[in-house]
UniProtKB/TrEMBL annotation:
InterPro entries: Arf-GAP_dual-PH_domain, ARFGAP/RecO, ArfGAP_dom, ArfGAP_dom_sf, PH-like_dom_sf, PH1_ADAP, PH2_ADAP, PH_domain. Pfam families: ArfGap, PH. GO terms for cellular component: cytoplasm; plasma membrane. One of its GO terms (molecular function) is GTPase activator activity. Residues 6-127 form the Arf-GAP domain. SMART domains: ArfGap, PH. Residues 129-229, 251-354 form the PH domain. It is found in: Cytoplasm. This is Arf-GAP with dual PH domain-containing protein 1. Keywords: Cytoplasm, GTPase activation, Metal-binding, Repeat, Zinc, Zinc-finger. It comes from Parnassius mnemosyne (clouded apollo).
């Protein structure tokens, strides 16, 4: 039999705002922080518990016993009121996590709200100044070892630099305006890790970094986003901020293994690691390669880009679910190992093809076309 307090909690949880997790938006949360007065999901409840009872006191809505005063607290506050308080001054560049986001992003969002109270006290937001210095562990370009490197972010110079030796010239200079940054815990094998992707000499370059402190890596991620937003606001002063935020760094639309064959019928199928970064479909020998083996620009359907499904045999015994990515210059023959994997790739590529081009997209397309033209000229000249 449901007791009186449990019934009250069930009614409260069904109210608008309370029916989703206060921190990640998961539906039908069955936990609560009764001192904060919020309804949360199991994943977020574990993070609340790790902060300590002096910050958040957690209970299950049905499995734990509730005191009258605790239920009254839930009634007085609730998710909407708590959101107005603890998220009052979230900066527009800050990435608010959703239920499927990496653990480090969700954990630091929760700690920023309730432990550090960053969004009640903006002076505690150390990532807004447009500059940051510190050390990150960086993976070597030629090997898999991670070395301690100093990174320097400078919004005024539009740069993110890294140094092998602190007082020497930088080893690498990355343009912020051309930089994408994504959390990459599964691929790198470290919870607090990121992948930096940028253009270097007409090609895409990947850098993999991590830090032992999750707060530090999260600060770097937000600092890059904030600096990029400021640069966009200068470059496009009449564009609404809401539109500029959509151009900030995003996680890759999809990554995974596919089989690829060349344009000739005699070409063999080879297993490649594919990454869809905005409109660039890159393929690599291994997931942590510094450079892709090739890059396919995915343009708009009005310019001749499309995707076709083939249900006939493709000659590849390891991947029977084939599809073709058609561009104005060439058709790329790819294959997935399962029907579900192919469906996932078809969905994200089709969405990309239907999305209108931005000025930045056109610049990237021109760069990749020049690169392909140059490579083809060299191949013809050398007789290859």
């Amino acid at each position: 039999m449901v007791d009186h307090n449990e019934k009250l909690l069930q009614e409260l949880q069904k109210k608008s705002g309370n029916n989703v997790c206060a921190d990640c938006g998961s539906e039908d949360p069955d936990w609560a922080s009764y001192n904060l007065g919020i309804f949360i999901c199991m994943r977020c409840a574990s993070i609340h518990r790790s902060m300590g009872a002096h910050i958040s006191k957690v209970k299950h809505l049905e499995l734990d016993r509730w005191e009258d005063s605790q239920v009254q607290r839930m009634k007085e506050v609730g998710n909407v009121a708590a959101k107005n308080k603890y998220e009052e001054r979230v900066p527009p560049c800050y990435r608010r996590p959703t239920k499927n986001d990496p653990q480090v992003l969700i954990e630091q969002w929760i700690r920023a709200k309730y432990e550090r109270e960053e969004f009640c006290h903006p002076e505690r937001q150390s990532y807004l100044s447009g500059s940051m210095e510190g050390f990150l562990m960086k993976r070597g370009k030629e090997d898999s070892r991670y070395q301690r490197r100093k990174f320097v972010l400078n919004e005024n110079e539009d740069t993110l630099k890294y140094h092998v030796k602190e007082n020497k010239e930088p080893k690498g200079v990355l343009r912020l305006s051309e930089l994408n940054v994504a959390f990459a815990p599964a691929k790198i094998g470290h919870m607090n890790s990121m992948q930096l992707t940028f253009m270097k000499d007409g090609s895409t370059r990947h850098i993999y970094v991590y830090h032992e402190d999750p707060e530090v890596i999260n600060c770097w991620y937000m600092a890059i986003r904030c600096a990029k937003l400021h640069l966009l606001q200068v470059a496009f002063p009449s564009t609404p901020q809401s539109d500029l935020i959509l151009r900030l760094p995003k996680d890759f639309a999809r990554e995974g293994w596919l089989w690829k064959t060349g344009p000739r019928s005699s070409d063999a199928h080879r297993r490649r690691w594919f990454t869809l970064d905005n409109r660039k479909l890159m393929y690599h020998d291994e997931p942590l390669d510094a450079y892709p083996k090739g890059e396919i620009f995915i343009g708009h359907e009005s310019n001749g880009y499309c995707i076709k499904v083939s249900n006939t045999g493709n000659g590849c015994k390891d991947a029977r679910f084939s599809f073709h990515v058609v561009t104005p210059e060439r058709t790329y023959c790819l294959a997935a190992t399962t029907h579900e994997d192919r469906a996932g790739w078809l969905a994200v590529i089709q969405q990309t093809i239907k999305r209108p081009l931005t000025p930045q997209d056109s610049t990237i397309e021109a760069t990749l076309v020049r690169k392909r033209t140059s490579s083809n000229s060299i191949s013809i000249f050398s007789g290859r």
